[in-house]
Amino acid sequence: MGREINSKPKYGMMTDIDFSHVNLAYLIQARDLARQNPAASALLLDIPEPLACRLASMTPASLAQITEFKPPLVSPRLHAWWWERLLRALTDGEPGELRVILEHAGLLTDAANRQTTGGNRP
């Protein structure tokens, strides 16, 4: 029998997956944003602003160490229904629907940040 749809794979089953370069690219982008706007970076990453400032000061060599970490560093924060809608729009080639879905992602992320921080960054 196959795995149930809602069950999550165990970490041991993912040992052959390598997200190291995705992790590095993510950290580089996050660092660059933190350098430009620490407050926006803190909000996006859902971290306190002092951590965003710390991220902004990291060197390429420091960030490159993340390539030793193979599992995904981050995971999607959106609900399964949103991903289902996104994948359907990508499959169907509907650019208008895709734009609406991606705009909705920003709204969901903003709402989630307000819930976890009470609308205020620590």
Spell out the key features of this protein.
122 residues; 61% helix; 6 helices; mainly alpha; Flagellar transcriptional activator fold
Q: Provide the low-confidence segments as ranges.
A: 1-5
- Largest sheet features: none
Give the structural class.
mainly alpha
DSSP helical segment count: 6
Q: For this structure, what is the CATH homologous superfamily of the largest domain?
A: Flagellar transcriptional activator FlhD
Number of domains: 2
Helix content: 55-70%
**The top level CATH class name of the largest domain:** Mainly Alpha
Mean pLDDT over the full residue set: 78
Strand percentage lies at under 5%
Provide the succession of SSEs.
HHHHHH
The CATH architecture designation of the largest domain is Orthogonal Bundle
Terminal Cα span: 47 Å
Number of strands: 0
Q: What Rg is obtained from the alpha carbons, in whole angstroms? A: 17 Å
At CATH level 3, the topology of the largest domain is Flagellar transcriptional activator fold
Overall shape: globular
Walk me through this protein's architecture:
By secondary structure, the protein is mainly α. The protein folds into 2 domains: about 15-75, Orthogonal Bundle (Flagellar transcriptional activator fold); about 75-120. The protein is about 60% helix and about 0% strand. The protein contains 6 helices and no strands. The longest helix has 23 residues, at about 95-115. Mean pLDDT is about 80; it is low at about 1-5.
